[in-house]
Amino acid sequence: MPRRPPVEPLRPAGPMPVRRVGPVEEPHPYRITTLQPRSYNEARQIGEEFRDGTPVIMNLTDMDDVDAKRLVDFAAGLIFGLRGDIEKVTNKVFLLSPHNVEVTETDKRRIREGGFYNQS
Fold first, then answer.
1. DSSP E strand stretches across the chain
2. Where are the chain's structural domains?
3. What's the number of CA atoms in the CB half-sphere (13 Å) around residue 5?
4. Most buried among 58, 65, 72, 80, using CB within 10 Å?
């Protein structure tokens, strides 16, 4: 049986040309929704807001630990499925950010300090 030469991995042909059309766009403003569920049954509202492209502050302080863990697991699946990001702000407060929204450091600091109010 004849020996085959080793197969080399595919490589890009070279850098892709980049064209700019018009002025560079500024980031679009966004609103952040704060939700404070009392039971796991409110997971749908969190999912719908996030799926619509809205960053969500998920405040689980009014939930028992078992349901809060279930909601964090739900949020992790949501984040994975929609390519978003999740950040733990405090022990029971999380920021869910859609893939196309970057929450500013100023807003993150306001969230950590507890001075961020629902903007919806």
1. 33-35, 56-59, 85-90, 93-97
2. 33-112
3. 2
4. 58
Longest dimension (CA), the chain: 73
Fold classification of 33-112 is: Translation Initiation Factor IF3 (3.30.110)
pLDDT of residue 8: 56
CA-based nearest residue to 97, from 88, 45, 62: 88
Distances (CA, A) of 25 to 7, 56, 68, 115: 43, 24, 39, 29
Nearest to 103 by CA among 86, 83, 78, 120: 86
pLDDT at 32: 85
Model-wide pTM > 0.70? no
